[in-house]
Design brief:
The chain is an alpha+beta fold. The N terminus is likely disordered. About 40% of the residues are buried. A hairpin with a 2-residue loop joins strand 7 and strand 8. The protein has seven helices and 15 strands. Helix 5 runs parallel beside helix 6. The protein has a single domain, classed as Endonuclease/exonuclease/phosphatase (Deoxyribonuclease I, Chain A), CATH 3.60.10.10. The chain has a six-stranded mixed beta sheet, with helices on one face. A five-stranded mixed beta sheet has the order 5-10-11-12-13.
């Protein structure tokens, strides 16, 4: 017997079962499809990827014994990576190489990231930059005590600075890696791209510090871009500053190109942080920008607290991975 069609009244009772997942507050609900023959590059601050072992070198404010990233948050971060499906992922807020390997083996073993790099740079919180790659990493460099060629100011926001006049030293060195995509993948010659992965100082009052970091990073970039094997250069990561701020504009003034710059300011689809700010960026050297696949950039949305909720006390929503979102682009190698 054929069933009678459902009436609008009856459909009301089925509405909860038919409901779809709530759209993300910021970022895109779904990743953009991969363009065949491209390399997908992403940056993602995964927020405190600490393991469950106490680091005896950390104490006081930086004590890490209670900072283990919850298993469900790690699983959600891996799911975000699975959706993004990037070939190379720059990461921030990683405790250690061991912590990253454990994360990969437990939650992301199916993603093909056989090449991993994460180096302790002596940051006060015990966090560092890292990379997951499906292709070999052929060069790595860090600068743990790099001078920022500046001195601390007399005051910060009008308050006397107890460190006034002291030389400013990098506390969270960039991680530089060169990745080589094999010829069997490109279908031509091997292809190289160099990444300078950054995590610049947080805090509204520390714009002066971020500006010094940017100047130092740009000096490193100019050296890298001048080396024949590393002309394809990207500076990417968590800049803790929005596009209109001086520390970010400095990269554009240096000739780098922002592949996500064409959207309207504060467009929710391109916000990268739960605070409603766009602070995670990818900047490309002019040569690398020529390889950008048009319309490929996106920010993947993940569950976040509402703006009115207190991040210190409010329970995280189901599926929460990080207070940052992955930023993604596709590149089409053309310099074969």
């Amino acid at each position: 017997m054929r069933s009678a069609p459902l009436t609008p009244f009856a459909l009301l009772f089925l509405a909860p079962a038919l409901a779809v997942a709530e759209a993300p507050r910021i970022g895109a609900a779904e990743p953009k499809p991969r363009t065949p023959g491209t390399i997908r590059l992403a940056t993602y601050n995964v927020e405190n990827l600490f393991d469950d072992r106490d680091d005896p070198s950390l104490s006081g404010r930086e004590e890490d014994k209670d900072d283990t990233k919850p298993a469900d948050h790690q699983e959600a971060a891996a799911e975000a990576l699975r959706k993004v499906n990037a070939d190379i992922v720059a990461l921030q807020e990683i405790e250690s190489h061991d912590a990253l390997i454990e994360f990969r083996e437990k939650y992301a073993k199916d993603l093909g990231y056989t090449h991993v790099q994460s180096i302790d740079v002596g940051a006060e919180r015990g966090i560092e930059q890292a990379v997951l790659s499906r292709f070999p990493i052929i060069h790595t460099e860090v600068w743990p005590t790099l001078s920022l060629n500046a001195k601390e100011p007399e005051t910060i926001d009008g308050v006397p600075n107890e460190n006034a006049g002291k030389p400013m030293i990098s506390r969270r060195s960039p991680l530089c890696v060169t990745v080589e995509v094999p010829a069997e993948t490109t279908g031509a010659k091997p292809y190289r791209v160099t990444l300078l992965i950054v995590h610049q100082k947080s805090g509204r009052q520390f714009g002066f510090w971020r500006e010094a970091e940017s100047a130092t990073n740009i000096a490193i970039y100019k050296r890298l871009a001048g080396e024949g094997a590393a002309q394809n250069v990207a500076i990417l990561g968590d800049f803790n500053a929005t596009p209109e701020q001086k520390s970010v504009r400095a990269y554009l003034d240096a000739g780098l190109i922002d592949p996500l710059a064409s959207h309207e300011p504060k467009d929710p689809a391109f916000i990268t942080h739960a605070s409603g700010r766009e602070i995670d960026h990818i900047f490309l050297s002019p040569g690398l920008a020529k390889e950008l696949v048009p319309n490929s950039p996106f920010v993947l949305g993940t569950p976040q607290l509402r703006p009115e909720e207190d991040w210190r006390t409010a329970p995280k929503p189901k599926g929460y991975a990080s207070d940052h979102l992955p930023v993604v682009i596709d590149l089409k190698p053309v310099d074969q």
